[in-house]
Design goal:
Helix content: 25-40%
CATH topology of the largest domain: FAD/NAD(P)-binding domain
Radius of gyration: 22 Å
CATH architecture of the largest domain: 3-Layer(bba) Sandwich
CATH superfamily of the largest domain: FAD/NAD(P)-binding domain
Oligomer: single chain
Largest sheet: 8 strands, mixed
CATH class of the largest domain: Alpha Beta
Mean pLDDT: 96
Length: 459
């Protein structure tokens, strides 16, 4: 009797954006792929995201008059990460981002386009955030699953990767999969792609690798327990940037819905519970979580106005908050201060300071550049926010083919990784994160992994 109950050419662990992209790429090359997913329905980290990813040099950028290319994108990644991102992964993501975008749009009919509301900011020197207007990550993953179904890709839900078997020399031979009833099946494969989530839901791992997040709420997917990372490490795989993560300072309390970044990009500010500003809101979309969490009560308020609400109201998250009537509103800053429990003089001083800088088109005392900035005016809005960790950015070390590398730098011949399972390009902490890079890593490395597996098996 065979040690495996059956075998497949390509086994993909994880059915989020990374796993779906890997499966579609393998299918395009004529290979059968089996995708397994621990949840009972499509979603995961992709479903909790805004469904946005970065790509440089796309046709949609050109159609909108944006001059961008892989070299500019690579330079932005390295500058934001203070030169500490893996240059091989960074260059691979930059160079493959546009081809992956065009492949998703032209081959698999995903209606992505440049999100013109997401202006160049937070390290992206060009507008390069792409998405599906009016839709978010859940719509994205459901559409990707529809495309997998169209391609005849089999997906087993409620099936968790629990072990990986190799031949003792680094070649993967198969995996153990646990089904919903607890039964474990041993499945053989010619190539294994690890496309699971990160480890944000594993408190022992986050305490070990990023102890500064202990006081932060976790707002990621509960299934991101680091399964693939731990199993890969057990085989002898190298890890990289395990202290890296996306923090976020604008999780609404108590609604638990993210305030989208364009609310700040378009001229909003953040104040603490007393009404004081405390940071440059335009500098670091991920690292801003720490100055917010150090404020009295470990939270604050996003202050914006009706014009910003109108400009950003089509973004699904803000639309949800509007529908829930989550914001406080007032015509006068004194009244808004009363509604949020802030000191009227301090809140007025904070808003006036920003308005004066915007009127002059100059930097304010926090260093925020208000050139061409919006001047806040009545009626005003306020959303209560806290800081949270959304997803981790460290993981298995990979090469430009998405092959997992051993601790001595040699690649495993048939083991690949992407998305939350792989090292990303944010450097060693939170300050190197570029907006939408989580899904960029997922879809780009997923496609590369599927393509690399196909090349290995058909050569």
């Amino acid at each position: 009797m065979s040690e495996f109950e059956f075998s497949v050419p390509v086994l993909i662990a994880g059915a989020g954006a990374c796993g779906a992209a890997a499966a579609l790429a393998a299918s395009d090359a004529g290979l059968d792929a089996l995708v397994v997913e621990r949840d009972d329905r499509p979603g995961g980290s992709t479903g909790m995201s805004q469904g946005l990813f970065c790509a440089a040099g796309t046709t949609s950028q050109k159609e909108n008059g944006v001059n961008d290319d892989a070299e500019v994108f690579f330079a932005d990644i390295m500058e934001k990460s203070r030169g500490q991102a893996d240059p091989v992964i960074a260059r691979t993501l930059a160079e493959e981002s546009a081809p992956t975008f065009e492949w998703l749009r032209n081959v698999h009919a995903l209606p992505w386009q440049l999100d013109t509301s997401f202006r160049a900011s937070y390290g992206n020197s060009r507008p390069r955030v792409h998405g599906w207007p009016g839709h978010g990550g859940l719509d994205m993953i459901q559409l990707l699953h529809r495309r997998m179904s169209d391609a005849g890709v089999d997906v087993l839900m409620e099936t968790r990767l629990v072990d990986i078997f190799d031949d003792g020399h680094g070649r993967v031979r198969g995996a153990a999969l646990q089904r919903a009833d607890g039964q474990v099946e041993r499945i053989g494969c010619d190539a294994l792609i690890l496309a699971c989530g990160g480890f944000g839901a594993n408190r022992a791992m986050t305490d070990r690798y990023m102890p500064e997040t202990r006081a932060l709420r976790y707002n990621g997917h509960e299934g991101s327990e680091g399964d693939a990372i731990r199993l890969g490490e057990g085989l002898g795989a190298a890890l990289g940037d395990m202290g890296s993560y996306q923090g976020y300072a604008m999780l609404t309390d108590p609604q638990g819905i993210s305030v989208p970044p364009p609310v700040l990009i378009d001229g909003g500010i953040i104040v603490n519970r007393h009404g004081d500003r405390f940071t440059d809101e335009s500098e670091d979309i991920a690292g801003m979580v720490h100055p917010l969490s150090s404020q009295p009560g470990s939270g604050g308020w996003v202050i914006y106005d009706a014009d910003i609400e109108s400009a950003c109201g089509g973004i699904p998250e803000l639309a949800q908050l509007i529908a829930l009537n989550a914001h406080k509103t007032a015509e006068r800053l004194d009244d808004l201060a009363g509604a949020i429990g802030a000191d009227p003089a301090r809140l007025t001083a904070s808003v006036d300071h920003a308005r004066e800088a915007a009127a002059r088109g100059a930097r304010d005392s926090f260093g925020r550049d208000w050139a061409g900035g919006h001047i806040l005016r009545a009626p005003f809005r306020a959303l209560k926010v806290i800081g949270a960790i959304y997803h981790t950015q460290g993981g298995l070390q990979i090469d430009r083919h998405a092959r997992v590398l051993r601790r001595d730098g040699r690649p495993f011949p048939n083991l690949f990784a992407g998305g939350g399972s792989a090292r990303s390009v944010s450097g060693p902490s939170s300050w190197g994160y570029l907006p939408a890079m989580g899904l960029t890593t997922a879809v780009v490395l997923g496609r590369i992994a599927g393509r690399s597996a196909a090349s290995l098996l058909t050569s």
